[in-house]
Amino acid sequence: MTDRLLPAGFAELEPFAGTWCLATETERYARRMASSMEEMRTFYDAFFPRLEEAVAHCDTFPLDALPEDARRLLQLVYSLVMVSMSIEIFHQPKAVDAADAEIERVREPVP
Amino acid sequence: MARWPKPAEGSWTEHYPEIGTGLISFEDSVSPEFYELEREAIFRRAWLNVGRVEQLPRKGSYFTKEVRVARTSVVVVRDGGGGVRAFFNVCRHRGNKLVWDEFPGEETSGFCRQFTCKYHGWRYGLDGALNFVQQEGEFFDLDKEDFGLVPVHCEVWAGFIFVNLAREPEQSLHDFLGPMVTALDGYPFDKMTEWYVFRADNRSNWKIFADAFQEYYHVPALHPQQVPIEVRTPGSGFECAHFQLDGPHRVVSTGGARRWTLPPEYMYPIERATRSGLVGPWESPEIGEPPPGLNPGRIDPWGIDNFQIFPNLEILIYRGWYLLYRYWPTSHNTHHFEAMLCFQPATTVQERVEHEVAAVVFKEFALQDAGMLTGTQTALESGVLDRFPLNDQEVLVRHFHKVVADWVADYQKNHAEV
Q1: pTM: predicted TM-score of the whole model, two decimal places
Q2: Fewer beta carbons under 10 A from the terminal one: N or C of chain A?
Q3: B99-121 pLDDT tens trace
Q4: Within 10 Å of residue B25's Cβ, how many Cβ atoms?
């Protein structure tokens, strides 16, 4: 039990938690750029059908008092949003025609 | 495609005859000599937005702003009386940069009771007064009264902090902003305090990037992915609903059916699942009666207003949130880009996720705009072409370059007379 990262109802997503529970957009974007489409597709297919459920679970707690496992589940939601850009929209890791452009997120709300 | 009525003259461009309809030059974006002129003619004359009052929550809160194009740094502070002041970020003793953290060239922010110079320990109050000189008795007739920090003209409009680097500004901030912009007075920017802040260093002239955000003509070609491929119409255009000019400032409004009222196939699955996406959350908390300056063309259904406030500020007002850009020149062919998405604070995870989706989608398409820049800049610098056609959807690009040219010409004229 001690090494469970996500809420009990989301046990099948545990294999992704080590990779995709990332606190900042900078980390999530870097992970996306370092991932293959196959890796992202596997994560997306496993999690997307449960996205709304995951948000609903987190929303059983106050936003500013999420338990650790729900906080990590929210980070996983953020990573799914990140990965969906590659899977749904661009069909490649980086935005099409973004060339070598980089835009850094330097401030964001927590969690 | 929706057709929006144009002014009686037949086009938005001809509605403003002073801007003409001819070919235009982008020499102003490739010339190092022109950049040298912009330093004085624009960035040391115009009011510049350096931040928001929310960045100064209490007495002693401060932030620094590097204005490299004007070769200066400014420190902005909430003083003891609760007012907002700005000073040149220079110690009066030996000219050292007064406020910095790890590296002198990087901006910083924080809270203090006084500013202490790292070099010899001179201390200044939040009002800029020189309060302490180390070994004061070793100096010769030094009157601390005469050595306070050098003030920078600083005024606040709608919570936006502006500075003017001129010795004496030619206009007050209110007069500079003019009636079109100040008609936004009362818009609750102060409620939109949940910020996603971005920055980038781009390899193009500052105006070239601003150009990409003041016309939507490029959207179908550069951003085809904004429409899911199943419902994408090859060859479709983009027409804006309203354009308006006022002095050096501009606004464009979009209109038409809101994305989320379209059939579901017009949205990506992540948008449908999170109720947010390309144009932000589908719903935001009510903000009451809008000020008269919002949606100045009274477009229905209204999309967004995109205000271009001269010289380098852009505020895009969506339903219940806003997006802000600043373009800070760093050389004739580079600039520092700042962007902020500002939402009313989320009270639930659902709302927070909606904001995150909007912030992620924003970056994707801004990366496409930024990706173009190096190519535009280098191609312009090749000098193969020197005259370019602009259409009516690009009227704001035409106006922007005209205003820049006018400000430079005006400065040169006055300078020559002096």
Answers
A1: 0.96
A2: N
A3: 999 999 999 999 999 999 999 99
A4: 15
Question: Cβ contact (<8 Å) for B349 and A55?
Answer: yes
Kindly report the backbone phi and psi dihedral angles of residue A40, in degrees, each rounded to the nearest multiple of 5, phi listed first.
-70, -35
In the predicted model, is pLDDT for residue B95 greater than 70? yes
- Its ipTM equals 0.98
| Whole-number Å distance between alpha carbons of B159 and A84 | 36
Q: How far is Cα B91 from Cα B99, in angstroms, rounded to an integer?
A: 9
What does the alpha-carbon distance between residue A53 and residue A49 come to, in Å, rounded to a whole number? 8
> Does position B2 have pLDDT exceeding 80, yes or no?
no
Q: Return the H-helix or E-strand segment holding B102.
A: none
Contact residues, chain A, for B222 at CB < 8 Å: 97
- For an interface test with B, give the residue of A81, A82, A90, A106 to mutate (most B CBs within 10 A): A81
* B279-337 pLDDT per residue, tens: 899 999 989 999 999 999 999 999 999 999 999 999 999 989 999 999 999 999 999 99
B48-173 under CATH 2.102.10.10, yes or no: yes
Q: Tokens in use for B58?
A: 């209490």
Nearest to B13 by CA among B207, B184, B217: B217
**Same fold: B13-30+183-417 with B48-173:** no
B131-140: Cβ within 8 A, 24+ apart:
B133/B93
CATH class of the domain whose range is B13-30+183-417: alpha beta
The CA distance from B342 to the nearest CA of chain A, in Å, is 10
Residue B187, amino acid = Y
DSSP assignment letter at B345: P
- Residue range B189-202, pLDDT digits in tens: 999 999 999 999 99
Residue whose pair of structure tokens reads 């100040």 in the numeric block: B182
Torsion over CA: B93, B99, B104, B105 (sign): negative
Residue position matching structure tokens 């606040």: B156
